[in-house]
Task: structure prediction
Amino acid sequence: MNRTIIINNKNDYKSFLRKLFFYKYYHFTNFNIKNKIKSSNLIIISKALNIKNRRDRITYLYDQTVNYLNNYYKEDLCKFTDDKCFVQKQRNDNSKFGCCFDCKLVKSGKGCPTSNVSCKLLYCKPAIKNIKKLKIKDIEFLRCFSIFQRFILKFDFYSTREQMIKDLYFGPIYWFIRSIPKGLRLLFKIHN
Ligand code: SF4
Ligand code: SF4
Result:
């Protein structure tokens, strides 16, 4: 079955975004979105809605989010040299690896081996002094994800791209249980 949605103006667009939650469950409908407003978000949303396999859709949206963040934060904001970000260099102490210091994935001299959306959304104030910090709500196509999935996107630090996609697929209970050892490790560190 085909369904054509016409978006003539910003009000139509807002109303369409509100209905996105329901459109996701139209498993047998092919969406044809005709829009008169310029929006790169809409191109992504329209493609995502026509991917009917849930895992494939999550993977597509995840990779689009990574691209979006990479394009937005074009320049090297943390300016790593000798395993220290510029904030650590200014502090001139023994700390290393910036915000990644506690992550098992970070390797000396090689940087981050994966694409983690949560980490890409987290910059300290000095790093984004001259740029508006992006939040989940600023990326409109993320409305294709549920509130719980957006929560995972925000807080799933220290995970690989593949693990994050798995967390988004299985949902918050799976993610919460998986995060318990990580939380305990951090708590143990704080009290020792
Ligand atoms: S966000 Fe700030 S503290 Fe974290 S690595 Fe970048 S410059 Fe360093
Ligand atoms: S996953 Fe996050 S914390 Fe770990 S190395 Fe990559 S950016 Fe750093």
